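User: Some background: our group keeps a shared notebook of sequences we're curious about, and every so often someone picks one and asks for a predicted structure to add to the entry. Today it's my turn. The entry only has the sequence so far, pasted here. Could you supply the structure so I can complete it?
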Amino acid sequence: MEIKNVCVIGGSGFVGSHIVHQLSAKGIRVRVPTRNRERHKSLIVLPTVDVVQADVHDPATLNRLLAGMDAVINLVGILHETGGGSDFQRVHTDLPRKVVEAARVTGVRRLLHMSALHASPSGPSKYLRSKGEAEKLVRESGLEWTMFRPSVIFGLGDSFLNLFAGLVRSLPVLMLAKPKARFQPVFVEDVGRAFVQSLTDPRTIGQSYDLCGPRVYTLREIVEYVGRLTGHHRPVIGLGDGLSYMQAAMMELLPVKLMTRDNLDSMKIDSVCGCDFPEVFGFQPTAMESVVPSYLSENTPRGRYRGFRIHAGR
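Assistant: Of course. Here's the predicted structure to add to the notebook entry:
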């Protein structure tokens, strides 16, 4: 399969920026729509990347974005709803439906779609149910699709380990909801490699791949590991189900949502694969311990620089 032009919807996000860099390194021309073009100068400077300001939820705009493309990658996702209660539906289900329709209209056959581990229309949370509904749409699209279902994703700039790093720096004690919930974190560069390799590999068409790292951790173990790395050893008090939901309900009232009740519902199913990393990609996943110290540890140049910025209030 020859792919020369790709539209990456969500390409300016955490995972997307890694995928765009990898595609550009292969000489593939990439179109990246975003709400604010000037915020993504690290992508603008890439030689084969065209960052365009656009509303991807508008069908006519999607048609223009996909015109002339050989493939489309949809990465758009959210972890929290704001207040209206329909954000998951709009982002996780309605948008993939529009992407599929735009692909049909413009003749784009290849579609790569980011889902989530254990996504299902009957899942325990709105997040997983909306992702599961999108999977059904993609499978029935008639396109040459491939889907990816990762556990939590770590890497420089992630919103998972960095969240806990911020908490252990600022709080004397951590009251931790769902401390026994299990995760199998996967490195963002490995996720990116899986996407990029599958783009031109016909063996991956019509396949869904669960993506996990080499080791399973409880949430408590992850938080304690982050505390050791950052040099902020904090007592971690695990909360039972009742107190976990009370804490999440109160956090939903904050301007920035750190945790919601829907997040807790998602954690009713452990975010682990129960299988090896897909053999078709030809590499083994990266261990968290071999990467995370480079961007979280206070004893690295990057960590010391981050510390200076925190103390300076920047």
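Suggested note for the entry: The radius of gyration is 20 Å. The chain has twelve helices and 13 strands.
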